[in-house]
Amino acid sequence: MSSDVERRSRRAGGRPISVSFEFFPPKTPEMEATLWSSITRLAPLAPKFVSVTYGAGGSTRERTHSTVERIVKETRLSPAAHLTCVSASKGEVDEVVRGYWDAGVRHIVALRGDPPGGVGQSYEPHSDGYKTSADLVSGIRRIANFEVSVSAYPEKHPESPSFDTDLDILAAKVEAGATRAITQCFFDNDLYFRYLDKARARGIEVPIVPGILPVSNFKQAKNFSEKTGTYMPGWLAARFEGLDNDPETRKLIAAAVAAEQVFDLVDRGVTEFHFYTLNRADLVYAVCHLLGLRPPQEAVAGQNGQAAA
Ligand code: FAD
């Protein structure tokens, strides 16, 4: 599929741009329909992989699994299943990992997860579980030859006492076998590059792929940012000022803001992006289009045919 796709962006100076998309497992049949229409819309852009999150404390274990399994069975996409260590014994986690391998999944996004008591509480590992995300990465790699991605925090994790601790944790995850880090979303690109410099200086060489959250609901994004310690620049708030009751204009502004962010990253050498889709395709599709990604011609013809029918 990917060989048919024109993946070169004029802004990237001819370097190939690659993207991945993150989804969450749906709770209701309606949400499931929305998710699948988004996957169908984004699939022709030939993402490197699509990932499916794991609910806090493993609360979506079955739904994550069934979503990932359906991606394997019904699409030609490469799924990556998120997995955390929270509230589960090693045996339970290993069983999930083996289940993924047997289902044909070859990529896991390995995370420690939030404290079982909720964000802000101290993290207590399960007495018989993986103690850290690096432990989990080792465990997964021992079970089978999975590709393993992990998290990274350009503005440091809220629990972290210092950038150095954060970088030590990332280095341990890479040493345990992770081959890619995906960042928490950020809105100030300078913070991403500052982190990248620190990671490279620490000897961490794996790709640190920026996680991009196209913001269409500013209030929601602000709440999320407060919890995760993500800096919301004043100019971002200003862009959405006065638009609380105007979702259509908000959407246009959202596409413009996200495009501005990714083009600045491209201009500064970034060629790989992970999009937090929130299970919606339109904004991410528009930004990818601006990046130069195109579906193969037969997919376009199919979509036009559907539209005409
Ligand atoms: P780690 O990277 O292991 O650690 C995070 C920080 O905690 C460290 O940087 C450090 O500051 C501190 N820390 C951890 N261990 C130690 C230690 N031994 N000593 C000292 N300090 C330590 N959550 C979900 O529930 N489900 C998901 O699907 C999910 N997907 C995510 C995807 C991405 C790309 C990102 C960035 C986050 C995701 N999260 C998800 C959120 C994540 O679970 C939380 O941020 C969680 O609090 C930390 O998990 P982690 O694997 O990032 O932790």
TrEMBL record:
The catalysed reaction is: (6S)-5-methyl-5,6,7,8-tetrahydrofolate + NAD(+) = (6R)-5,10-methylene-5,6,7,8-tetrahydrofolate + NADH + H(+)
Q: Does the keyword Amino-acid biosynthesis apply?
A: yes
* Entry's EC annotation: 1.5.1.54
User: Into which EC class is this enzyme placed?
Assistant: oxidoreductase
Enumerate the UniProt keywords alphabetically: Amino-acid biosynthesis, FAD, Flavoprotein, Methionine biosynthesis, NAD, Oxidoreductase
Name any cofactors this protein relies on. FAD
Q: Which InterPro entries match?
A: FAD-linked_oxidoreductase-like (IPR029041), Mehydrof_redctse-like (IPR003171), MTHF_reductase_bac (IPR004620)
Identify the pathway: One-carbon metabolism; tetrahydrofolate interconversion; Amino-acid biosynthesis; L-methionine biosynthesis via de novo pathway
Q: Which superkingdom does the taxonomy of this entry point to?
A: Bacteria
Is NAD tagged as a keyword?
yes
Gene Ontology MF annotations: methylenetetrahydrofolate reductase [NAD(P)H] activity
Please give the family membership noted in the entry: Belongs to the methylenetetrahydrofolate reductase family.
The record's NCBIfam families line, in alphabetical order, gives:
fadh2
Question: What is the official name of this protein in its record?
Answer: Methylenetetrahydrofolate reductase
